[in-house]
Fold each of these.
Amino acid sequence: MRTYTVIGVPPETQAYAVAKYSRSALSMLESIKDISSKQAGEFLTTFYFQYGHRSIADLAHVVVALEDISILAAIKVVDEPLWDGQERSTRYQSFRRSGYYRPPELAGSLGEQLYVDTCDFLFARYSALHRRLLDLLMRVTSRRFSSSSANGSVETSTGGPPELDEKRRERALRARAFDVARLLLPLGTLTSVGQIVSARTLENQISRLLSDPLPEAQHVGQAIRDACSAPAEHPLLARLTQAAERAQGVLPAELATELRESIASLRPAAAMPTLVKHCQPSSYQIETEREVRALAAPLLAELGPVDDRSAVQLAETESVADEVVATLLFRFDDAGHAYAQVQGLVERVSEETRAALIAASVRHRGPHDELLREYRAGYPIKFDLLLDLGAFRDLHRHRRCIQIIQPFTTAHSYELPAEVFAAGLGPDIAGLAGKEGLIADYVEALDRAGEAVGRLASAAPSLASYALPLAYRCRALFKMDLAEAAYIAELRTKSAGHFSYRRIAFAMFQELARVYPGLAAHVRVTNPTEEFDLLDR
């Protein structure tokens, strides 16, 4: 038996080499030695595009960096079930200097100055709130540490040198302050995303982004496609080239020439020029959204006021066919009705209406299009979540579930500020923050931003969300099995987690316990109202 790993091979060449196992007795290294980029491209063109052997694209993986895109665009980028990556954390980094995305479509419009003024205001309040919260936390915990030391009970929280312990305390408290302050960041805030994905996932992602109504998402999709077709960045090659230049005049001439020629043979190659060249906007996605929206609008208008009483609702079981119809209606509901309300609507509409919605959802499906995500039905556990956008972004990373996200608006407002500060800092410090005017400033910032978003929505509906702060709530349907529900409950209720998603995850567990008490009894959760430690990160 021989087992080994391989690095430094272009993704398409690597995919061809692995695929050859089914067609050749050669070892992988022997295959790689004989494969050129041209041969790999010809193979993929024949078997992937002509014969439809799409699993071959699962064998090619690439690292993609997307930098200086908005948080709103980043949400759309990572909204991919088979996705692995990371985004800049608003919990541990300051975004004060990051700036925000300025949609070119707003340039010269009446809404441009309103958007700029709103984002500038939010960033100023974000920086001030973080600075003042950190000062408050340092003052309060400093008194507690001094008191503990005087009583002889605690010298340091880690047992290490006092100066090191002080740095750890400040680092933990800085992060605590970010947990609250981040809620003032608008969705237009610039961020960065790194992902490692297969060619098949990348192809789906590019096509989905190119089909998105948001212009920035379309630009990002095109940028990914262009990057995969251009020579890839090769940091090691750059270092080798510099070393070879320094070696001139030091190494024997013959050896220096051999080194230079060997490095030249490693010229940067495009990561996936063949596998992405046919990526285009999906007419299935575009036309289906247009047609289903038109059918859904008059039906959803019958629902009346939105029910926002519960942050977490475990949906009742329905037939798979009814679930598909309800999920289609839920996704395109701009008003933000609860899933239970939509389920009730589906029960009342005629069979002809349900059939029309189903027909519209598949009418434009091409020969290579998979069914829409709304068809991923039959999961036993469906959570309707109403949570702030910051917490949503954290839970959005869970891939072993199906997520149906409603449009982002101000319709659901934001959590009660006093509860937010109490959950993030503890009741005592929240009380001090209120006395120092921090909560009042927080409320003023959110109300002003919400009013601006409303005005922007009248002028540029598709762009208004960029000014929406992370404190505002959104609604999303999470479908999953029992194991994933238990995993989210256990992981996301731990004391080091963000207070917003801790509360949501615990409410998910409570709903699970209500319906499946015997199973929920074995889920290891942490009650966020019982365990709170400012320094536990």
Amino acid sequence: MQHLLNLFAAIALLVWGTYIVRTGVLRVMGANLRHVLARSVRNRLSAVAAGLGVAGLLQSSTATCLILASFVAQGLIPTGPALAVMLGADVGTSLMAVVFSFDLSWLSPLLIVVGVVTFISSESTTIGRLGRVAIGLGVITLALHLIVAATQPLTQAPVVVALLAALPNEIMLEIFVGALLSVLSYSSLAIVLLTATLAAAGVLPLVVALGLVLGANLGSGLLAMLSTAGSTPQARRIPLGNLLFKIAGCLILIPLMPQIAVHITRLTDSPLHLVVAFHLLFNVALAVLFVGTVRALGVRLDGWLPTPDKAGQTQRPQHLDPTALTTPSLAISCAAREALHQADVVETMLRGILPVLKDNDLALAENLRRQDDTVDQLYSAIKFYLTQISRAALSEREGKRWTDIISFTINMEQIGDIVERVIQDLEDKKIRKNRNFSDAGMAEICHLHARLLSNMRLSMSVFLDGSIEDAQKLLAEKVLFRDLEREYAATHLVRLQSNTPESINTSALHLDLISDLKRINSLLCSIAYPILDAAGALSQTRVKAPWRQAPHLKT
């Protein structure tokens, strides 16, 4: 019983080690991995090479598949080239299995010691994150060594010997078990290494081990499908295509397995190396056989899982891809795109103020007020999505972007509330009471409204690209808008003194309206503050120095 518990603990350690390496690499190179994948689709060979390299770093073709699924869902990569990247990713994880099949037990203590020291001493830096990766690699090699040690007593137990003798040589059962173990452990690499180690210890016959490897490959495809089950149709294309490749490969090999088991023994006498070599050859064969079909299959997948019509879907989040959460840098980009979607709805509300004001359109007013519910829903969705991103996994730049997105969405939500209140006031105090603004008053409001829309577009540009020059323009607009609001409030009071009837009837509404427009403009301009502060372009105070207190104010 103790030996069996040791084996389970070693397997758990192996799975945990692959997870540590995968998350560590994503934290170090998340944004760079995105650029590599996005630029690798010029041709099929470069796409395969990029997939091989990225999966080799992540030690997980499933993680690579989820990243690609997010890219395809956002329209950044076509489906066909992304499938080519996935073929290379499967080869990359197979190569890592070959590397770990060698005796690296001597390296494990060194990796763990160096990794722990660097991670603890500088956890939030790139060096610290590389230390995390070193810890994961050390844990993997240690786990493989522990699996060998735990299986040696088991192979000598009479019960185990009798069980292996009675084990049916049924390829479909072996594939099912291998796929199930891969899904449960969330790592086909870990299952392949475990199978190879058990075969080397004599616990598994070679034919059974090869069947389990086929199942592990199939399981990695199923795992990606399950992970994207709740995503958009676009995000499910790559997992489905990759699974179809694996199913086709298994169907081709199943009738040939008895001959393969005989001929593969000519490569080496080591069962461990035979198992990992079979895993590598299987994925290389898939890449060679199917790389020429990726474009045709990509077109088919685009037809099977079409992009839904976004008309009438503005109320729902469009860019918050749950599969991107495993890649923090990608998830931050998804949240930023959704924040711009929220801003588009707010801009629509702002544009609608003037038609309601001029045309007394109650139907439009009601529609605009309903759109505030959409703004609130998008704000809640973005906020919840961002809270699911691990802050510890973000670089300093990404952490700042996380904060900027939260601030931007809060401002948009507050602007939506102000616009809703403005529309309600126009209904209650102008439209239903059949009142009108004076020509001069209407011209002033139209001028402020036009500047506000211009600043809205400028604020979205500043949020998107972080331009310091545009941020300075936006902040200058805050001062200009404030001066205009004061000027127009004063001219309104002049009209009151002249006993202009329209101005008298709409005085409170007029002053409230220009004040609300100024508040909206202030919220838009506040987007510039973090960018200018980071660039050192903000002064500490607006009070002129030196400043002396007036004598009559001294205490």
Amino acid sequence: MKNFSDLGVETSILNAIQEMGFETPTPIQEQSIPVFLETGQDILGLAQTGTGKTAAFGLPIIQLVEPSNRTIQALVICPTRELCMQISKDLGNYSKNKSGINIVAVYGGSSIERQISDIKRGAHIIVATPGRLMDLMNRRALNISTVKYVVLDEADEMLNMGFEEDVEYILAETPKEKRVCLFSATMPKSIRNIANRYMNDPFEITVGKSNSGNVNITHQYAVVHARDKYAALKRFVDFNSDDIYAIIFCTTKHETQDISDKLIKDGYNADCLHGDLSQGQREKVMNRFRHHAIKILLATDVAARGIDVSGISHVIHFSLPDDIENYTHRSGRTGRAGKLGVSFTLLNMRENGRLRDIERLSNVKFDKILIPSAEEVRDKKLVAFIDTIVNTEIEESIFDDKVMTSLRPLLTLPSEELVQKFLSLELRRFSAEYLNAPDLNTTSGDRTRDGERGERGGNVRGQRIFVSVGKKDGFDIRSFKDWVAQESSLDWKELHVDVSGVFSFVDVKEELAEKVITALNGNTYEGRPVRAELSGEKPGGSREGRGGRGGDRGGRSGGGGYSSRRSEGGSSSYGGGDRRRSSGGDRERGGDRERAPRTERSDRSSYGRDAGSDRSSSTSDRSGYGTRDGGRNRSYGGDKPAGDRPSGERRRRRD
């Protein structure tokens, strides 16, 4: 395997990247760097987000730039301010041992006067978003006629965001004799057209298949009713909360803010990123997310473009993207730098066709999973809590005489009672309402070949059995499941139970139903006869008909309370918080949608500028979102600084 010195990287840069932890080049770096350093060819690179493209073009540019030449020698164009700042920071780190190289980042949302001042002091490399770059060109504050190297990073995203005309305008102002490097995750026709017009016989590099997803990413989906999406989201997050560090994608700004507010109120460590936030607010959110002060980031497609954060464990699609290609960009936020990641989609029953389209166009295979039951979430949390206690090392130094005196009331308790008290404190977070919440999965239009439900933790629903004991007999979900498992000699993992007042249900695989009925029917529990028989309901509570059991249960054959669904909505989950009903993602997708302007080009002014711009053209009062995050007051909209408005009549959408 080659190292960076084998690729021709000079010593000063090698020392810098070694300090950053770079050891061996990624495939895109291994193929790009020698071509950039040793030939005069243009480079057309096709590679997913997170494969190391910044170093692929950044290291050779730093090496080839001449510090003694005070003109602008390299221009890097990228779609969003976040990516612009990240690239500028990385280039600065690569060049820290090579004195005299000045790198200036220009992007919307910050003082244009300060950026002009930085350019006047001398800039060898400009990293820019298209909107702010054109502003500076129109003000004659930036001259790109001396540029030797032009890099178009995340080119497909720039075009998806409506920057095609802007990019062509900028390229037309650069010298005819220059080298162009274009990097893209996908290769639509528009990218190929730009390559044909502005690149000279480029050296093509492909890492992975065209339009394909990262092989380190597992693609999963679950099918739920639209009204249950928020409840299902919480269940998924709760079940994976031990290691979750996630971006949740929503379709609209309103949905992003709404779901974020609900998660925060319900006790989750979350925040959001969308186009109505000012640049200062965006940077604050991103800094907290990068430093893991926020574990869950809600974002729109536009606002999330250019986010470069390592270690993201999950990408969650609360809503599927309107543009299927955006699925690749979304999922590419996880599984980076060789690490494994999960891309999980919450699907309602009407979206199966769109999922199949994504599979076909993105060359990925989705695995169906089931949303965990509330009981499964509780059990996993309990195991994790116990493991934490068992594996905690005792710090002898903290147990001084005062601490030991304070511990005496605990030490007098029997060990079993002490353990029960500790566990009660932990399990108190799981309310009875949460534990008795219904199954959120739906089988409509999504059956396995044998007609049964898909698996979740080993449970497959085939038959539902009615049992004539319940909470009035002292059972809860755990004790009832244990009793059924013991009586029928089955593993409790084979069972799923619902416990009501004077009766309960047991869901089992079809081949196990007779064994359970035989074991329970005619048995007794604390002197009360037990009756067990096949239910007239399918697993999950759907009625097959009113026959079956007849009317021998004192009027319960019509279903009564046990057949009604209760929305888990905003009920208190593991994270706690207020209990409230929520319709989750079942809302109208309206006019606040942050979309690529291919379909809304006539409405560019409403987007503000670079990347979900904070400088929205609307000055209306958006204070309805309220004060969030520990009293942090977010103000939305407002007037734009005069220096941030485009000059002349060229008022293009900059986002």
Amino acid sequence: MIFVTAGHVDHGKTSLLRALTGADTDRLPEEKRRGMTIDLGYAYLPLPEGEILGFIDVPGHEKFLTNMLAGVGGVQHALLVVACDDGIMPQTGEHLAILHLLRIPGLTVVLTKIDRVDATRRVDVRAALEQTLRRYLWSNVSFFDVSATTGENIAALKAHLHTLVSRCVEADARRFRLAIDRAFHVHGAGLVVTGTAFGGRISTGETLWLTGAERPVRVRHLHAQNHPVETAHAGQRIALNLVGDVHKDSIARGDWLLSEAPPPPVNRCLVALELLDPASFSQSSQNVHLHHAARHLTGRLSLLHSPEAATKSMLCELVLDTPLHLVDGDVLVVRDVSARHTLGGARVLSLASPRRGKRQPAFLHWLLRRAETNDDHDVLALWLQQGAVDLNAFAWARQLTAPVLQALLHASGALIKGGYAMDAALAEQQCDSLIAALAETHARTPEHLGVGRARLRRMALPNTPEALVFAHMDRLLAEKRLVNTHGWLHLPQHRLAFTAEEDVLWQRLLPLFHEPPCWVRDLAKAAHVSEETVRTLLHKAARLGHVVAIVRDRYYLASQIARMAQTVRDAAANDEGSMETAALRHHFGVGRKLAIQILEFFDRSGFTRRQGNRHLLRDAELFAMDDGVNTPDDRRGNEFPVSFEPDSGS
């Protein structure tokens, strides 16, 4: 377990840790010379049961507040140190506000230097502190009056800290995430980085992703709480000996060690802003300084509602000048543009800030509900209400391991397909949208049999991931609410057939196909009708699956194409799975130009794939032509598709 000190400069934080642990956390020569903490210091206290308490000593001077903020991330308990002779000072209040904003779970108040004051002064300081604590909603806070000089009550404080360890919950089931605050070389070992783990577990030999350097590294050795271990977990102070193509100079304070490569860092997100004073944020937008984990940067906060409605808690969009690897629930300490005053804390609600509609009442209502919960089940349910959920993005945002994510999805009852999840009720609504789009198409173009899968998605659900839309279609086909005829989707009641006049003309044209392929102009001349009449008829015949155009206006019967496809398959089987133009001419007795047209048609349809002069047979997803674009047919196997738009081009 890790404790962090907090309090005004010269209130005895370092002396207190020396009395507790025997270690001097002022390690820098400048700290020794000036007698004050400048950067983070660390100390450890072994307990009889084998547990080790870790302490982070942070600077109390306001000039070093950035260093102080780098040390408080990821800790579970804070020691607020107040000197009885001084009482509450400016940094006392600011540090307490920061602990409140960062939602540090526990707090113990330590009144130091009691050997310098009388009992009345102690009572007065404690009363003032209790009043200040109530302002920040701290409750169940323990008080200890100690003297680091005489050792008075130090043993009682140690015993209290010991009891806190027994209540401490070990590492959660999140992914491993550690914010680096130091990097250095150790002779004989190599690169070592240290930091506080925000979540998960890590063991020696595992591979982590190092941001900044943007590459994987392997953990050779581990120290947790200043002792060698095989496994370390969240809530511990960890040192990792790393192996990989990385140098100390490429690592900066605030870089992360992660269990896997993260998505790109975000430069804008939606946050719940908790202000210490509502009057400090009277504008609709303002530039601010931000502190996240061990990183200090700048950005801009913009209110999502009117300033008149501003309270101590507001919904904002945060635009970062430097992209960050954020996750849900991360808190950024917000300071004013001069970096002199702490304004509040910004808690991440969504890593995706929509370009449009984020100020609409309905979305703000949803975002407000999102701000009210951080439970994984509730958050997933809220996102499912918004539409399709990208599971990779959701798992990163919530830092969920694969087993936890699977259990969460199983409990939600959501439709899962292609890395996306969707609420079952919304999926039913989208199925109805597909049916409605088809019904409208049938009414508008009754002469068409139906539409391809890709086109139907573009018509009805263009913003829904393809995998989910195709899953809807498969479901509708299984339920007989849709029908697939030669690759065209249509409603069961919709039928495409020749009219009486068209059937008469078709019967006149059919015998002419005994010498394929037939040009539209030749068929029109033989039947003594216009080319446009024949072309319209053959378009319809293609949709009915009777004919296939290998190029525009040049047709084969579907049965002839099927026989040709089988011949090509049989011949290719004896020629390393391929067919060449000369071989096809030999098999079918056609000219070179027609042979090339036939093979290019097979390539376009997905039956073969050209490689130089050879056309390779492939058992791939079959295609039906939809407005000139190959779209997946729902069939699989070796049946060759014989229906596609005849005017799709060559």
